[in-house]
Amino acid sequence: MGKSELSLGFSEFGYEFKDGRHRYNHDRFFVESGGVGVTIVRGKVCVQNGTDCVDALVNYRIEASQTLEQKGHHVATPSGVDRITMQYWAEDDAGNKFEFEKIVVTDGITATVE
Question: Residue 13 pLDDT > 90, yes or no?
Answer without folding.
Answer: yes
